[in-house]
Specification:
There is one protein chain. The chain is α+β, with helices and mostly antiparallel strands. The protein folds into 2 domains: 2-128, Alpha-Beta Plaits (2-Layer Sandwich); 137-265, 2-Layer Sandwich (Alpha-Beta Plaits), CATH 3.30.70.1900. It contains 7 helices and 18 strands. The protein has helices spanning 21-35, 37-46, 97-104, 169-182, 188-191, 237-246, 252-255; strands at 2-9, 15-17, 48-50, 53-58, 61-63, 70-73, 76-79, 83-90, 108-112, 117-128, 137-144, 151-153, 159-161, 196-201, 207-213, 221-227, 229-236, 260-265. The strands form 6 sheets. A 5-stranded antiparallel beta sheet has the order 5-8-1-10-9. A 4-stranded antiparallel beta sheet has the order 14-17-11-18. A hairpin with a 4-residue loop joins strand 9 (108-112) and strand 10. Helix 1 packs across helix 2. The mean pLDDT is 89. The record marks 59 as: Transition state stabilizer. This is CRISPR-associated endoribonuclease Cas6. InterPro entries: Cas_Cas6_C, CRISPR-assoc_prot_Cas6, CRISPR-assoc_prot_Cas6_N_sf.
Length: 271
């Protein structure tokens, strides 16, 4: 399920950190915790465990970039209008939609780091369709609404962030998608028998962006993701719902990585 949050800056002109994604993730967790402490603890500390690896956990939600006109000033974003919007999505039973929607209604939130603090009120929460049909197997084209992060472990024990042109970009996205699915369901081989994914490039190359989380701490991490391309995806209905709800690739709940929207639906054959 996904929602569009309409937010209004209450201390306009509002200044956001360029790396607002991690503070925004903290805001979402805080809202969940205020309404249901046990649910927030499960989502944040446990997640959905992968059956064959109990140390691997997924927090199955993501969110888009904040959509608002802005001007970059150093490492800050100065909003040029008080209104903004962001899409949040959760892989939860449809019966929870009213509950989750109610959590965000009329909330007062802050997106802040050590240098700046922006305050907002959530003025409107709109439920959004996923954009899928009821067909058991579908092909769709997805448009990124945030950075898509594909990574692969290297020999030094760290992770390399892969560009869409890299031959392992799609295999790593597929592996992550199947791992998420396997954390919830048992029929992963059957569900992904006909699954596929392909990058669709524009005339201009994909754009990369580096996001820093936990800035100025021992846990500081820099994450590189990419936009300015599309993905042609084929899969079963249940697997596609998971992809749209939980996000593509990694760092979904941490920085809103892999938030996507259905751009087109046709019967292309992936070759």
């Amino acid at each position: 399920m996904r929602f569009r949050l309409k937010i209004l800056a209450t201390n306009f002109p509002a200044i956001l950190p360029l790396n607002y994604q991690y503070p925004l993730s903290a805001v979402i967790y805080k809202i969940l915790q205020q309404a249901d402490h046990e649910y927030a603890y499960f989502l944040h500390e446990i997640g959905y465990k992968q059956s064959e690896n109990s140390l691997k956990a997924f927090k199955l939600f993501t969110f888009s970039d904040i959509k608002t006109p802005f001007k970059i000033q150093g490492d800050r974003m100065r909003m040029l209008a008080p209104e903004a919007e962001v899409i949040v999505s959760f892989h939860l039973p449809q019966a929870a939609e009213t509950f989750i929607k109610g959590l965000f209604q009329n909330q007062e939130i802050e997106i802040a780091d050590r240098k700046s603090r922006a305050k907002f009120s959530i003025n409107r929460v709109e439920s959004l369709p996923l954009g899928l049909s009821k067909e058991p197997v579908q092909e769709i084209i997805l448009q990124p609404l945030s950075l898509i992060v594909s990574s692969k472990p290297n020999e030094q024990g760290n992770y390399d962030y892969l560009a869409p042109e890299h031959p392992d970009f799609i295999p790593q996205l597929m592996y992550n998608w199947q791992s998420k699915y396997n954390s919830l369901y048992d029929d992963v081989d059957e569900a992904f028998a006909d699954a596929d994914m392909k990058v669709l490039f524009y005339k201009n190359p994909p754009k990369s962006r580096l996001i820093t989380i936990k800035d100025n701490t021992k846990e500081q991490t820099k994450i590189r993701g990419y936009v300015n391309f599309k993905l042609k995806v084929r899969g079963g209905l249940e697997a596609l719902e998971l992809l749209l709800n939980a996000g593509i690739g990694v760092y979904n709940s941490t920085i809103g990585g892999g938030c996507v929207d259905v751009a087109e639906k046709k019967n292309w054959g992936i070759k």
